[in-house]
């Protein structure tokens, strides 16, 4: 079983935005993966992008340049 | 209580929901139906006079309880969020497809699991279609499908569907305005207050655990994530034990009296439409009721679509018939999908493809 660690979790307004984020990160070789939105963050059932906490600035820059709107940035155990 | 921070707790959530369904089946709900969203919406639509099939009319307290249970628990835990504005009319159509596909198969994904746990091999065949439908929906997501974002709206808006459900409950308890079947599946039900309590518990647990049949398979395909399927596993295990202990476990295809048919192609295609539409709408029929309860007007519109679809399924002869035993000749009469139902399912699948590949993320920007 994967050990839980403090991670940066990016939530989006739509599932399509999360999918676009995955595609963009793969293209630009940004570390991270798609996860279901952690229950502690939302009662919704969408997707989120999970990345190392030290990637915060880099991710913000990538999303800005890729035209992806984020809903919120969280730090939580994943 | 946090029901989602470990797989054990998620399985426990499924077990609680399974116990609710088993209790309701034991105390009078139709055999092998126990707790079916599509069937119960169809019965409630009949009670409201939206269709005139006399054997399936009864205001099911389970449906009312699910919405109110989700509403109460989300309000109590500050998770109620009134949102709206994500392509409501497309969602209405998807709701209709969810109901029509389900009534051609004879059950929503929840009942599919219940039927599987009772040994109904038709439901295992239908599971193939459901998984393929969810897979097609995931493919559309990867191609950029989106119905656009929902926005926060007036708090009252999200409370309208729960209020309407409360209104139906009051009509059922205090008046004789609603229709009620005297024979057939609509006449078979657990006591009203027990059904209501079951719905409230099921709704609250499903809201906390985010129980969703389409979502569980979507998450496996998309992310190899098995959290949501763990809930379904707990639910299935309880129903399997209940069916074996109560003598309802009958492996086979042509079992009379369990409200199922053995037209494999149409079982597959009916649930294919349901799986596909559920991913596009962001949740299975159960999940739509829960999301509507926690404030989503978009899901409330989907629920209204399910009511319209269920009514259409009976008004236009789309719903399948179940395999039955002829009381006089003791011969098994095979259940079947009428021609209208076959045409409707094909149309539903075509509409799903049109919706999936004409609503793109870039258009909403």
Automatic annotation (TrEMBL), chain A:
User: Which InterPro entries does this one have?
Assistant: Se/S_carrier-like
Q: Where is the Putative Se/S carrier protein-like domain?
A: 8-75
Q: Please give the name of this protein.
A: DUF3343 domain-containing protein
TrEMBL record, chain B:
Membrane topology per the record?
Multi-pass membrane protein
Its annotated compartments are: Cell inner membrane
Keywords assigned by UniProt?
Cell inner membrane, Cell membrane, Membrane, Transmembrane, Transmembrane helix, Transport
Has UniProt tagged this entry with the keyword Cell inner membrane?
A: yes
Instruction: Tell whether Membrane is among the UniProt keywords.
Output: yes
| Transmembrane intervals | 89-112, 124-141, 153-174, 186-205, 226-245, 265-286, 298-319, 339-358
Q: GO cellular component annotations, sorted alphabetically?
A: plasma membrane
Family membership noted in the UniProt record: Belongs to the TsuA/YedE (TC 9.B.102) family.
What is the recorded name of this protein?
YedE-related selenium metabolism membrane protein
């Amino acid at each position: 079983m994967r050990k839980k660690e403090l991670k940066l979790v990016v939530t989006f307004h739509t599932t399509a935005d999360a999918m676009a984020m995955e595609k963009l990160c793969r293209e630009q070789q940004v570390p991270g993966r798609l996860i279901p939105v952690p229950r502690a963050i939302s009662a919704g059932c969408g997707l989120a992008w999970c990345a190392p906490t030290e990637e915060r600035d880099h991710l913000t820059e990538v999303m800005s340049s890729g035209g992806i709107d984020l809903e919120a940035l969280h730090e939580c155990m994943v | 209580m946090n029901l989602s921070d470990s797989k054990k707790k998620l399985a426990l959530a499924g077990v609680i929901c399974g116990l609710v369904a088993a209790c309701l089946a034991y105390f009078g709900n139709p055999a092998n139906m126990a707790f079916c969203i599509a069937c119960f919406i169809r019965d409630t639509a009949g009670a409201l006079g939206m269709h005139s099939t006399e054997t399936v009319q009864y205001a099911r307290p389970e449906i009312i309880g699910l919405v109110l249970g989700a509403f109460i628990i989300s309000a109590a835990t500050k998770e109620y969020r009134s949102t709206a504005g994500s392509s409501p009319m497309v969602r209405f159509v998807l709701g209709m497809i969810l109901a029509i596909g389900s009534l051609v198969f004879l059950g929503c994904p929840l009942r599919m699991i219940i039927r599987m746990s009772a040994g109904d091999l038709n439901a295992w065949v239908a599971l193939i279609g459901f998984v393929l439908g969810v897979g097609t929906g995931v493919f559309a997501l990867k191609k950029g499908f989106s119905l656009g974002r929902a926005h926060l709206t007036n708090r009252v808006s999200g409370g309208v569907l729960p209020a309407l459900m409360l209104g139906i409950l009051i009509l059922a308890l205090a008046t004789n305005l609603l229709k009620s079947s005297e024979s057939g599946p609509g006449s078979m039900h657990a006591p009203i207050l027990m059904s209501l309590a079951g719905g409230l518990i099921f709704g609250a647990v499903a809201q906390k655990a985010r129980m969703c049949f389409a979502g569980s398979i979507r998450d496996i395909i998309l992310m190899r994530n098995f959290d949501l399927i763990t809930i379904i596993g707990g639910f299935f295990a309880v129903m399997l034990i209940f069916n074996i202990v109560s003598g309802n476990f009958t492996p086979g295809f042509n079992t009379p009296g369990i409200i199922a048919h053995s037209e494999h192609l149409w079982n597959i295609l009916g649930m294919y439409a349901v799986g596909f539409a559920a991913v596009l709408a962001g949740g299975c029929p159960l999940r739509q009721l829960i999301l509507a309860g926690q404030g989503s007007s978009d899901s409330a519109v989907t629920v209204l679509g399910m009511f319209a679809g269920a009514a259409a399924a009976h008004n236009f002869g789309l719903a399948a018939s179940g395999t039955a035993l002829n009381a006089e000749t003791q011969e098994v009469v095979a259940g079947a999908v009428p021609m209208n139902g076959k045409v409707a399912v094909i149309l539903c699948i075509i509409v799903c493809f049109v919706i999936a590949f004409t609503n793109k993320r870039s258009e909403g920007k």
